[in-house]
Design goal:
The chain has about 800 residues and is mainly beta. It has 7 helices and 37 strands. Helix content is about 10%, strand content about 50%. The longest helix is centred in the first third of the chain and has 25 residues.
Amino acid sequence: MTYLSTLLTGVATVAIAVTAPAAAQTAGDPATLPVAPPAADAPPGDEIVVLGFGKSRQVQSVTAADLSRLTPGSSPLKAIEKLPGVNFQAADPFGAYEWAVRISLRGFNQNQLGFTLDGVPLGDMSYGNVNGLHISRAIISENVARTDVAQGAGALGTASTSNLGGTIEFFSDKPRDTLNVTGGGTYGSNDTYRGFARIDSGDLGGGLKGYLSYGFLTTDKWKGAGVQRQHQANGKIVKDLGSLGSLSAFLNFSDRREQDYQDLSYDIIRRRGLGNDNIADNYPLALQIAKVAQNQAAAAAGAAQPWAGVGTAFPAGIGTVDDVYFDAAGVRRDYLGGVTFDANLTPGLTLRTTGYYHDNKGQGSWITPYSPTPAGAANADGTPIAAASPLGFRTTEYAIKRGGALSNLAYETGANTLELGGWYESNSFTQARRFYSMTDTATPNRDVLKFQDNPYATQWDGKYTTDTIQYHVGDTLRLADDRLTLNAGWKGFTVTNRAIMLPATTSPLAVGRISAKDWFQPQAGLLFKLAPGTELFADYKENVRAYVSSATTGPFSTTQAGFNAIRDRLKPERSKTAEGGLRFRQGPVQASAVGYYIDFSNRLLGFANGAGIIGNPATLNNVGSVRTYGAEVALTYRVFTPLSLFASYSYNNSQYADDVLDARGAVLVATDGKTAVDSPEHMVKGEMVFEQSGVTARVGADYMSKRYFTYLNDQSVPGRVLVDASIGYRFEGDGPLHGVSIEGSVTNLTDKGYISTIGSNGFTASGDNQTLLAGAPRQVFVSLKKGF
């Protein structure tokens, strides 16, 4: 907090010093204030997809207009799932339930990508809250103005040390120039209620304007018992400093509480169907299943059964103790804020500096039959419970306090634009595994949607710090009357990870220090305009992924002996990507085609010890390389003014290039030549949008071929086609209904039963695994919106 205060105070002090004379210069008629022109590459607001013209790398953008065509509250990630190379999976209709959300680009999974919001790093957006937060908590979806997807090579200065396979950058909306109030409400399947309201101040004088907004979502789970609920608030303020630049600040809040869906295996699906779920509405049954399982374990060990009179036979329809659990949930509370100063130092010299801070508190809970509650354990109010229970309440608890600053200095002279930038972040992350009591009573004594108090045991309680220093240097050269653009540069970083265990815990997990360093990661690209509307592009980049500091992933998520064995020989993951393609634009047609090759080396694999949900320490090792090549094609066609079409096709071939070997060099898993897990070979997406005279209609289809969820490719989920649609009307003209719009939307229009997320509990070498999640069935929503 002290670091953050110093950082933000420093940025604000510089801004105030500049603001004072600027305010004096611009006092008077607001109409005389200079207005910054839009960026040259800013996409038009009514396009379905913007194909990145003028870029020397594969980039596509979707805008707020595109996101508004989805059901309100949908994750910004859901808006980009139609882009080529993007594999997006979710178990809910909004794409916001974090345990199930997975996104990958060209075979790289979520924690190998880079994510930012207005340049502020979001970490790898992993579920476990190690170094950031998910975009669905970072900002209300209605406040997202644009999302840029770079499938292969993110911008050189992206604040990320995990972007092996591309970046996804989100940009927030700007405050309106005039006073404005907007609001909307949604109702739909499973008692879904969604509300949103925003007020813009308009220009308050001297170029000062801002907005405040609030969003709320509550919905019952589409199967099983439980709810998923979120409160969000966003605030942003901007001060135009005239010729000197601008100052902006934002503060975003999120409180999310979501009960989980049950992870499935093929065995469970065969016996109980895709509708199998936790039994949060039947506590007595959960107690009975746990007692039977513990009696079975005692009988197998030749010991006395702990639960007399219950027996060793599961109730009808239950095959194993893992078929159904009582309940599980995730609760998260986040504050994310930042201050940005854009300074025009001279006519050709600009400096952009951002200071930011993120505070997070979270708990992931599971009411488990594997950790029964002993008699005398503390109840929620701190008093001891009288009798033992076959169930226990296990949590993984998180707290993040991270702050940082990023700055970019750009100098334009003639045909050259030179850039020099840096990023520093200090992340203090605490993570604990605790156990809370459950009672052997008719109703449960704890609510999974609340932060828990009074644990009776702490298995481990660790503090993990990550210090990141990154810099970049780049040059862009425009030649031949801007027909040829060359850019080249490099970035480098050093990331130091430390782990200590806090007192009063006896932990099996590792402590110590490890670091990743690479001061030269080159990147180069070219853009050549063959003719007006036709351009060739190519680029090459190298990236390294730093380690993460955590008890549940990364090098510290093993025993001390395991960490000591790998600390001096572990290598960070590395990728080398080359891509090239063509873009074409003429009249109503835009198209792009790209081919790519990726050499991914030093792949890290955590060898699981037991079922993923049990939480045994894993062992991390480098296990070889992956070779990937593929192609992507995208096309937009405005058939006539009201009707637009978009289609994309992706081909991806990702194969392991080595076998997994044990410490003696013997083959442990024969992965050489096998297809990488969760990397579909073919994806085809299409969308049609009609907009005229207030009428809006959209239909989209998404095909994905089969995906493997074992390294030996003996288990896979089949391909599927999903269809979404929406239709709406906006009242134009004068009268009380002016600005009112009503919209109906349907997800999974054909009510397809399918497996969506794979790898929720990781991947295994072969065989079935409880690591699958079912996709939501058809869901219907009606939304009403009004702007004042």
